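Hi! If you just cloned this repository, the fastest way to understand the data is to look at a raw example. We've pasted two of them here, unedited. The first protein comes first, obviously.
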Amino acid sequence: MTSSTSEKPLVELTKGLNGLDKVVLREVRGSSAEVYLYGGQVTSWKNDHREELLFVSSKAIFKPPKAIRGGIPICFPQFANCGPLESHGFARNRFWSIDKDPPPFPAATSSRAFVDLILKPSEEDLKIWPHSFEFRLRVALSPAGDLMLTSRIRNTNTDGKPFTFTFAYHTYFSVSDISEVRVEGLETLDYLENKERFTEQGDAITFESEVDKIYLSTPTKIAILDHEKKRTFVVRKDGLPDAVVWNPWDKKAKAMADFGDEEYKHMLCVEAAAVEKSVTLKPVASLTQREFSLAAEKTFCWFILCTGALLQFMVGVQQ
C-alpha cells in the first residue's frame, strides 16, 4: 500500500474528460474504478498493480449525446435493435444522479468503496418510451479489488400497466491479443446469431473473425482466459440468463468513427444480459407486499474478479 493511495478518499466525486462528473472508487491495496454520471458508466477498473482491466477506445467521444465507447455501458430498456428504440436504449446516454439515500440492499457487503446512482425518465424519455421507472445502480469495489454492479429496476407507473424491457451490462474487457483469448463456460449451449439459432460446437470459444452471438440459458460463471497476460477474468451473474459475446474484427472496426482501426485486437465484450426473453415488471401500486419483491422490482448482479499469476486476486478460490 502506498502512502499516496492511503491519503486519498475511498470515494471521490471529481471531473473527468470534457468536464463530465465522475466518481472514483479506491481500495487501500491500490485497485480503483471510475464511474461517469453520464451513462452511469464504469470507464476504468484497475488492479493493485495499476493495470487497466477494461477497454475504452482511444477515439471514445466523452460528449453527450454520444455514448462512451468502452467500459461497461448499461443497455436499458432495450438491448441492440430488439425493439423500436435507438440501439441499446437510452440509459447509456443519460445523466444519472448520485442516490444519497438508497433503500437497503438485501445482502450485506464488505465493500466500503461504492457509489449508488439513480436514473428516472425525463419528459422526453416518456415520449419515446411511455413508462415510469426508477433504475438504481450500485458500483462497488471489494477490498480484494473485485468489481460488482447491482441494478435494481422498479416499475413506478401510476396507470397500473406493466412494462417489458431487455437489458445488458455491455462489458468491454481489455485483452492482450484477441487471437490468444478463449472463453470457457459457454460450450455446447444454444446461441442466436443474426436471429438464427445454433448450438456451440467447440470446447471453448476462440477468435479468428467477427463474433456477435447471444448465448442462451448460460451458467452463472463464465471465464475469459488471456494466455499472453496469464490473466483470467471470472464473471458471475445473477438474474441474467443470457451472455453476449462480441468482437467487431477489422472490417466493422474501421466503420466505427469512435473505434480505432486496430483496437479490435485488444478488446472483447462478454455481456451479462436478458435478451431472448424480455423482463416484465408490474407497477408497485398494483401489488401486495408479498408480491412486490418478485414482480415490481428486478435485481441484476454482475460480479467480476481476476485470478492469475500476475494479479494474485483470489488465486485458487475460483476453480
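Ok, and the second one:
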Amino acid sequence: MEGRRVVVSALQFACTDDVSTNVNTAERLVRAAHGKGANIILIQELFEGYYFCQAQREGFFQRAKPYKGHPTILRMQKLAKELGVVIPVSFFEEANNAHYNSIAIIDADGADLGLYRKSHIPDGPGYQEKFYFNPGDTGFKVFHTKFAKIGVGKKFFPFPFIVLALCLFNSLCRSLIELLHSVCQQFAGISGFQRQLELWYSKVQKYYFTQLLLVLNLKILDLILVITGSESCKGMPEPIWTSNMGLFPNCYYVVPLVASNRVGKEIIETEHGKSEITFYGNSFIAGPTGEIIETADDKEEAVLVTHFDLDVIKSKRHSWGVFRDRRPDLYKVLLTLDGSNPQL
C-alpha cells in the first residue's frame, strides 16, 4: 500500500537590503525547488532584507508591515496557487502598536492558513531582537496543509561560543546514543534508551526552548520546519551545526526536520559604528532519527530537496514508545520559573 509521500525543500541565499531583489530571488528558488518536485518549500527567516537586528535604530521599525494585505505574502499566495506548493513566509509584522517576528503559512491552493509569532526573543550583541519584537502570542501551532501537518519554529540561538560547546557535546554523544539505542533495544527496551536520551536532552533544553517541539509533537505533526539567521562561528567543525540542529528534535520525537539559514556578509550601521555578521548557511534536511540527508555549504545559495513517506515514519515513531512512556503528571515543575513549589 502506497503511503503518504511528501517532497520537502530548504532554500538558502544571501540577502541584499532591497526588498524587491530578495523577493525575486526567493521566487526564483521556489520555482527551482518546484522543478525538482518539492511541494513544501521553506524560505529563510526575514528574507525581505538584511538582518536589521544587529542595531537598535528606530528607523528600522518602518520595515514592519501589517499581516493583512502584506505585499510579499500576497505575492507568495499567488505563487503557491500557481505551482500547487506550500510556502511559509517570514516577515516583520506590525500589529497596531505591537511588532512581531512572524511567519504566515500559505497552502497549495494559495489559502493563508494562519500565523505563528516567534515566542522566544533573543537579546545580545548582533541579535538585539527584543528592541523590535514583542514575544509571540499565538502559541505553538500545527498547520494542516494539503501535503502534511507542519509545525514551524524560529530558532533562538545562544552566542557562538555556547553553540560550539553544545555542538561538540552533541557530536560526541551521537555515537554513544547509537550504541545505547542498539543495546537498550536488545536488553532494556526502548524506554531505557528514552530515559538516557531525556537526560542529554535536558542539558540543551534551556538554550533551545525545545518545549516548542514537544508541544507541536503532542498536537500530532508530520514535519518540523525551522528558519533562522545564524552567524558563522570560527572553528566550528563541519558538520557540527547540522548535527546539533538535527539530533534532538529528530532522535527524540522521530520527526523529519527542515532547516533554512541565510548566507553572506551583512553590515549594519549602529550607534557604535559598523556591525558585521557573516551568516553560516549550512541549511539542511534531516530524517526522522537525526540522519542528515541533504545539506548546503556556508557560502552559496542552495535548493535542497528530499522526500519522505509519512506513514512509514509514523509507524517508526509509535514503535519507539516515546509518547507511550511520557509522564506528564511528573512534569508540572516546568510550569514554574524557578523550579520551586510545583503543584504536584
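That's it. A detail worth noticing about the second one: Residues 160-187 form the longest helix (28 residues).
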